[in-house]
Amino acid sequence: MALLQVRDLKVSFDTPDGTVRAVRGLSFDVEAGQTLAVVGESGSGKSVATQTITGLTRGAKVSGTAYFDGTDLITADQATLRRLRGAQIGMIFQDPLSSLHPQYRIGWQIVEMIRAHDLTISKQAARKRAAELLTLVGIPRAAERIDDYPHQFSGGMRQRVMIAMAMALDPALLIADEPTTALDVTVQAQVLNVMRRLQEQFGTAIILITHDLGVVAEMADEVVVMYAGAVMERAPRRDIFYRNHHPYTQGLLASLPARSEDRLTPIPGTPPSLISLPKGCPFAARCSHVFDKCSEPPPLTDVGGDPRHQSACWLPHDVNEAVAS
Amino acid sequence: MTDVLLKVDDVRKEFPTHSKEVVQAVAGVSLEVHKGETLGLVGETGCGKSTLARCMAHLYDVTSGSVWFEGQEISKLSRKAMRPLRRDVQVIFQDPYGSLNPRRRVGSIIGDPFAIHNIASGNDRKKKVQELMELVGLNPEHYNRFPAEFSGGQRQRIGVARALALRPKLVICDEPVSALDVSIQAQIINLLSDLQREFDLTYVFISHDLSVVRHVSDRIAVMYLGKIVELAPTSELFGQTRHPYTRALLSALPVADPDTADSREQIILGGDIPAATNPPTGCRFHTRCPKARLDCTAEEPPLEPVLNDQPQHRTACLYPLTVGEDLSTAVPDLKAS
């Protein structure tokens, strides 16, 4: 059984303008030691989904299940979630500065985190562990810098501190929500390298949420492509890039400047409002292959008979090359 | 010889800090922007690319050096003397949310340039604004809407319409697509290149995203800590990279292609960008350069051509890369021999 098994997750928020249906029936598995990339544009529901799994969406209406190591995270009480978060499920977010307390020393924050979950460890031992962790994520002179404040670290170094904290208790799963989006490319390369190395060393499973298809190509084993709160396509990494089926996946790839010599081929129009979604396929209004059937919601079904590759599109699923061209 | 539209001559821009130190945001940059071209300015956070752009548009006073537009020095003009030239030099900013007044209607925002320069008023102005809206792909009937009623991509179209209202000669695009999703980003890039062709525009295009800059630019200047380290026609910059920093930047860029991602040797730079208050001596990149030598710490390399037959391709490096040189195995050697 997969380490994390999410089934038919639905998340909605009531707002004065109506109900925002942020996630509409999301299912995926994360296997131990693997990286699952969840890719999508603003408002696709990729962040809300993982925040809901870890119990961080307040005031949302949630249904579905998310089994992590035998526990359903959706129905689990706060005490259980608090025990799992940090210890079993590590998390890093886009902006490391707002995730660190500005008035406490880096070392103190890591020690506090370790001691919150491990009640037997001594202060000295936790501090030693904190210094080891900082060395592990590539912070030079970790023993000295452990007493620095967050503002004394650069953006890339802060993100390393966040990774050190997230990895402190050797979690089975690391959720990384746009971990390198705020960083420059050379620093991004360093941070992704650290994540890869730690995964090899400790066998951590990673859910990597990103809008950057380049990062997906570098890091992912499996990929889930989301649009308007639903999965459009799911496949192993190479299938997403070379044998994709869904017109949205194709549109995303075609929009990339690196992929065309002359004129870019954008996806026309804008994503639908999550308050008043169309009845059928959410992508229909922007899709160049649209036909009658698209007014009904397409189910996620196997592509080319491969259960690992699924697409939510009414176009024929047997020969995917027919559309890929 | 191509016509020079804008010339930047040894421009420096310094900002004081609270601790009485000085941030050297731009530390001696010279370059020319040719009529009709797109010049890309690329670099990481804090390299001075946006400051340089603001100096080019004379939104900042330079600390020293000069900026010339069509043969006229503009860097020392007063605000009033600069005003007629503002018609010719326009800026598009990154943040389509922050650069539009939320309380004003879109029609009046786009119509501002006509009002300020006394070009059109009343129904005439409205007609011109609606033509512009049509031109950039906005529905002219949305004339009376507020910025909040538009999506990010549409707001950037509003910014483009406003910049183009007076038919400028030079448009400085400061990260115009960085805040947008890729599918929308491609729409705006196409719009900008259509408009360039139609109105014979010259662009200075600033971005931290090399793949975007590569797509739009004829020539690219790579900046590091306030200086240009390499300046070359786009194909040469990518095909025959000379500066180690440029190479590292190119190699760090994630490519959306699993085969390439798996097979290439990435150059992972050590450390962080040094503080601009206290830049390294000699070559500013020597603290992170994989092939730094002792003289790199003392001697500041000038920006000059590596080969005589490529005068357009200039780099500031004492040990420029040869084509095909493997940088991933290089190690710095800073010991005296």
Explain this structure.
Chain A: It is a peripheral membrane protein. Chain A: Belongs to the ABC transporter superfamily. Chain A: It holds the Pfam family ABC_tran. Chain A: InterPro entries: AAA+_ATPase (IPR003593), ABC_Ni/Peptide_Import (IPR050388), ABC_transporter-like_ATP-bd (IPR003439), ABC_transporter-like_CS (IPR017871), Oligopep_ABC_C (IPR013563), P-loop_NTPase (IPR027417). The complex is a heterodimer of chains A (325) and B (337). Chain A has 325 residues and is α/β, with parallel strands linked by helices. Chain A has 12 helices and 12 strands. In chain A, strands 6-7-8-3-9-10-12-11 form an 8-stranded mixed beta sheet, sandwiched between helices. In chain A, α8 links the parallel β7 and β8. Chain A is globular, with a radius of gyration of 21 Å. The model of chain A has no long low-confidence stretch (mean pLDDT 91). Chain B has 337 residues and is α/β, with parallel strands linked by helices. Chain B is built from 10 helices and 12 strands. The mean pLDDT of chain B is 92. At the A-B interface, α7, α8, α9, α10 and α11 of A face α5, α6, α7, α9 and α10 of B.
- Quaternary organisation: heterodimer
- Let me know the CATH homologous superfamily of the largest domain in chain A: P-loop containing nucleotide triphosphate hydrolases
CATH topology of the largest domain in chain A: Rossmann fold
Number of helices of chain B: 10
Structural class of chain A: alpha/beta
Shape of chain A: globular
Beginning-to-end CA distance, first to last residue of chain B: 45 Å
Indicate the CATH architecture of the largest domain in chain A.
Answer: 3-Layer(aba) Sandwich
How large a portion of the residues of chain A is in β-strands, by DSSP E? 15-25%
**Main sheet summary of chain A:** 8 strands, mixed
Number of helices of chain A: 12
* Average pLDDT reading of chain A: 91
How would you describe the shape of chain B?
globular
Largest sheet, spatial ordering of strands of chain A: 6-7-8-3-9-10-12-11
CATH topology name of the domain at 4-224 in chain B, in short, is Rossmann fold
InterPro entries (chain B): AAA+_ATPase, ABC_transp_ATP-bind, ABC_transporter-like_ATP-bd, ABC_transporter-like_CS, Oligopep_ABC_C, P-loop_NTPase
Pfam families (chain B): ABC_tran, oligo_HPY
Family (chain B): Belongs to the ABC transporter superfamily.
Keywords (chain B): ATP-binding, Nucleotide-binding, Transport
